[in-house]
Amino acid sequence: MTFASPFAGAVCRLTTALAANEFGFNPDALLTPMRQHRLARARHVAMYLTHVGLGVKLGDVARCFERDPATIRYACARIEDARDDHAFDQRLNDLEDQARSDASHLLCSGVLS
């Protein structure tokens, strides 16, 4: 992971860990170029949580995940489309809530300043 800023780096680590845990992967696996469907979905969720859920700029997300900004846009669009499924939407809502809560705790502790 290349960090654009301390904030973006901490948020990327947080969302990667959350998505990896949710999908049953090691966080490092999400940073590989592997395209296995479940792994790619977990990576897309991490990108989505970082950009849409926590408001990190697209370019910063791209640097964190070492991807092109177009890849981040594609991932976010795929996740938005997948939210049409009620069960997936609820799962993502829960992850967004957890990400916001964890990020808030990091802010309060001074890690994300």
Choose one word for the global shape. Answer: globular
- CATH homologous superfamily heading: DnaA protein, C-terminal DNA-binding domain
Distance between the termini: 19 Å
Report the uncertain regions: none
Main sheet overview: none
Give me the number of helical elements.
5
CATH class: Mainly Alpha
- For the secondary structure, the number of strands is 0
SSE series? HHHHH
Helical/strand content category: mainly alpha
Radius of gyration computed on alpha carbons: 13 Å
- Counting structural domains, the number is 1
Give helix % range. over 70%
Fraction of residues in β-strands: under 5%
The pLDDT mean sits at 92
CATH topology: Chromosomal Replication Initiator Protein Dnaa, Chain: A
CATH architecture classification name: Orthogonal Bundle
How would you summarize what this structure contains?
With 113 residues, the protein is mainly α. The protein contains 5 helices and no strands.
Description:
By secondary structure, the protein is mostly helical. It has one domain: Chromosomal Replication Initiator Protein Dnaa, Chain: A (Orthogonal Bundle), CATH 1.10.1750.10. The chain is 72% helix and 0% strand. The protein contains five helices and no strands. Helix 1 packs antiparallel against helix 2 and helix 3 crosses helix 4. 34% of the residues are buried.
